[in-house]
Design a protein that fits this description.
Order of helices and strands: EEHEEEEEHHEEEEEEEEEEEE
Distance between the termini: 92 Å
CATH superfamily of the largest domain: Immunoglobulins
Number of strands: 19
CATH architecture of the largest domain: Sandwich
CATH class of the largest domain: Mainly Beta
Number of helices: 3
Helix content: 10-25%
Strand content: 35-45%
Length: 267
């Protein structure tokens, strides 16, 4: 029998904005947990022990993130962060002695990514990890003139067709998480030691946006383009939420010969 379950969306509870992330709370009692109170703090290890001790009984535990504000469908925005341990978020702890018919808050707990996984809690840290784990496509590099050749001192044109959002679903603890990645910026490496970055994906001739003139002739360079994706996600078809960090996918270099044009008389 499972002695612990989490409803990340449905049980995210709002608390007053005056609550602070780094407040020091007194430790919760290690015995008579049912007498715990909302203003105390468990350790993650204590919660795991309580869950194990409740196995096979009618006792249940669940946690819900403490939130300063809420989004549609009760998704937690701006969760409270703990200063100790570092890189953790603060959660309400609830206890039920009648298989989940009634719940009583018995304190709080600060959970990091590993602890959240152990307790099957979906956190923004877990979503960010999935965002980085997924293999998003490289940006395709198009060069004009084509066929892998250009001329010295000529404005060579570069662009990419990788401009549309990509969406991939993942399943986390029985919930469907949709993660969407959208190309946000590009870094162009021209293969001769120079590069440039910007929001533009470039365009085909004659709408030149990203160009570069090579000054050394009779060489082969290997230009490439990196794409930085911004992300957003939603759980079980709810409202979309932004991912705070971007993810850069490096492009594969391609060979480009830089040639010298030689004039020839023709009859």
């Amino acid at each position: 029998m499972r002695a612990f379950f989490v409803l990340f969306v449905a049980t995210a509870l709002a608390i007053p904005a005056r609550a602070v992330a780094d407040e020091d709370l007194p430790p919760c009692p290690t015995t008579n947990v049912a007498l715990g109170y909302a203003g105390c703090q468990h350790t993650a290890e204590q919660i795991l022990v309580l869950v194990q001790q409740a196995a096979g009984t009618t006792i249940r535990y669940r946690v819900a993130p403490m939130c300063v504000e809420m989004q549609e469908q009760a998704v937690c925005l701006n969760p409270l962060r703990c200063s100790t341990p570092p890189n953790t978020l603060r959660y309400h702890v609830y206890r039920s002695e009648d298989s989940g018919a009634t719940w009583v808050e018995v304190g709080s707990v600060c959970l990091g990514e590993d602890d959240s996984d152990s307790l099957q809690v979906i956190t923004e840290m877990r979503i960010l990890r999935e965002f980085k784990r997924i293999q998003w496509p490289e940006a395709d590099l198009v060069i004009q003139p084509p066929n892998g050749k250009t001329l010295v001192n000529l404005k060579t044109n570069f662009y990419t067709n990788t401009t549309e959002p990509q969406m991939q679903p993942v399943t986390i603890f029985g919930h469907t998480i949709e993660i969407e990645a959208t190309p946000a910026s590009y870094t162009w490496h021209f293969g001769d030691g120079s590069s440039t970055s910007g929001l533009q994906p470039g365009d085909k001739y004659p709408n030149l946006q990203v160009t570069h003139a090579y000054v050394e002739a009779d060489v082969t360079v290997r230009p490439s383009v990196d794409v930085a994706y911004s992300g957003k996600w939603r759980i079980d078809g709810g409202g979309w939420r932004e991912i705070d960090e971007t993810l850069t996918v490096e492009g594969t270099p391609v060979a480009l010969q830089v040639l010298t044009a030689t004039p020839h008389l023709v009859g």
